[in-house]
């Protein structure tokens, strides 16, 4: 994709599923990649693959809800790969599928810390670098569970609804700065998290995570420079198509 090479993308939750697929798609598109996951060991295979392909990269174990860990990671990203042009907040926990009033307080806190607080924290630190240069694209990964009430989707659904609210408010606040914020609902994918949520579902009926990459690449590029504060459903998107602002 012309004009995209040598820029840096930051991706959280990169060890598997959508995050891993996006790392490989951006790397193939000529981007430098900074990726994190809760465990550094879970990123070793991905790091080796990027190394073999001579892709400039940084793969680290980071708890996205821990400010000192996130700050160190972003500082190392800037020092080794340059300022981040794109941030994809993908890291999340599913939590247990049970009624809201039955969810343990510790689980509630852990899921919100990863899904909501982590998104906010990483965004604040990366946006700081983007605002310094007057450009950047922030893409927050959501879910259909955020749209309407779903029984036993509890903390996960609420955390994703909050991520969307954060995204739209931030987009409005950053309008005119050159930094844009959008939301992507990737839809049903063949991932471990999906299998955990729907254990009886046949994974062969679902798309591979990499099928959503063109939308993320488009939101990262110059074609979408004027697009902000919008929600995209990956299964319905066609290149260049915009949804109504939210």
Compute the gyration radius: what is it? Answer: 17 Å
The SS-based structural class is: alpha/beta
CATH topology (fold) name: Rossmann fold
Supply the number of helical segments. 7
- Whole-number count of domains: 1
Mean pLDDT: 91
Query: Shape, please?
Result: globular
How many strands appear in the DSSP assignment? Answer: 7
Distance between the termini: 28 Å
Low-confidence stretches: none
Identify the CATH architecture. 3-Layer(aba) Sandwich
Helix content: 40-55%
Strand content: 15-25%
Write the CATH homologous superfamily.
NAD(P)-binding Rossmann-like Domain
Strand order of the largest sheet: 3-2-1-4-5-6-7
Largest sheet: 7 strands, parallel
Keywords:
246 residues; 7-stranded parallel beta sheet; 15% strand
Secondary structure: elements and pairs:
Layout: E1 8-11, H1 17-28, E2 32-37, H2 44-52, E3 57-61, H3 67-81, E4 84-89, H4 105-133, E5 136-141, H5 154-173, E6 179-185, H6 192-197, H7 213-220, E7 231-233
Parallel strand pairs: 1-2, 1-4, 2-3, 4-5, 5-6, 6-7
Helix pairs in contact: 3-4, 4-5
Briefly characterize the structure:
This protein has 246 residues and is α/β, with parallel strands linked by helices.
